[in-house]
Amino acid sequence: MAAGRAEGWTQRWSGGVPTWRHTSQGGFDRRRYEVVELAEAPAREYIQENHYLSGWPPAVHRFGLLDLRAGGGEGGQVVDGQLLVGVVVLGVPMNRRALTGVFPTLEPYSEALEMSRVCLSPSVASNGESFAVAGALRLAAGYGVRGVVTYADPVARLRTLPDGRTAGSPRGHLGIIYQALSATYTGRGTPRTLIVLPDGQVLPARSVAKFLAGDSGADGVERRIVALGASERAAGADRRRWLHTALEQIGAKRSRHQGNHRYALAVGRNRAERSRAVVGRPSLAYPKWTENQGLDVAY
């Protein structure tokens, strides 16, 4: 099964493990669901438990999809007495230019944000993504958000869980749900070199920057690398030198990434509000799968 293919497959996540539903199955009943604002704690718990990117991004607004019929007796997280079956996160990208380059007339970090996570439960019928994202953006509009940048990574991300199951994204993504919402496709993001850890996950550039600067969260980055087999860093040891050695010890690989697919979504409760989201990049044809999309690996 190929995740995100234009033929109509939509992806779901549970415990980091993907499943798929085809849009031809239908069955989504909008009367059964509600999109609500979430506090950080339940949103973080849901993402870290279910999304293939288990790290928690810098979040500004968090929204949840509630199943109004399931109630709180079927296991899983419960919010206001209802089962939480999806989370949408709007947050801050690592680089301000990721927002200003797409929405030059909007104030970054308030009027313009990044949609950094969308994760729905396997219990949600096909076509639930567009309902959840549209509902989240309507609520975000009430806070003055007028434009959202979001990315789809076309590269496979796989890792083996302790119980032997395969987690991650086996084919990558094209951003089919954003295409369904008539988002503007603006091409690929900036090519970059990724650090791929032995467990199949990527060490984000944000995490590297935190560690090198000794910022909040740096200890967590260090513990993660040590848990993969690196020697512990001696007190006062140079951070950059230790990181270089530690990544060699655990067999991390550097992979060249050609850039994620980038989409822009106008946000607003009416046409006048949405018209403020002037996209500063050309609108391009939506991407489709080819045989040679993804990483050029450089070991």
Radius of gyration: 19 Å
Largest sheet: 8 strands, mixed
Structural class: alpha+beta
SSE run: EEEHEEEHEHEEEHEEEHHHEEHE
Q: What is the number of beta strands?
A: 16
* N- and C-termini, Cα separation: 28 Å
Which blocks of ≥5 consecutive residues have pLDDT under 50?
Answer: 1-6, 292-299
Discrete helix count: 8
Mean pLDDT: 85
Helix content: 10-25%
* Apparent shape: globular
Strand content: 25-35%
Explain this structure.
With 299 residues, the chain is of the alpha+beta class. It has eight helices and 16 strands. It has helices at residues 40-50, 97-100, 128-141, 176-180, 205-213, 218-227, 239-250, 271-274, and strands spanning 9-14, 17-22, 33-37, 59-67, 78-79, 82-91, 112-120, 147-152, 157-160, 166-169, 184-188, 192-196, 202-203, 253-257, 261-266, 295-297. The strands form four sheets. Strands 3, 4, 5, 6, 7, 8, 11 and 15 form an eight-stranded mixed sheet that branches. Strands 13-12-14-16 form a four-stranded antiparallel sheet. Strand 1 (9-14) and strand 2 form a beta hairpin. The longest helix has 14 residues, at 128-141. The protein is globular and about 55 Å long. The two termini are 28 Å apart.
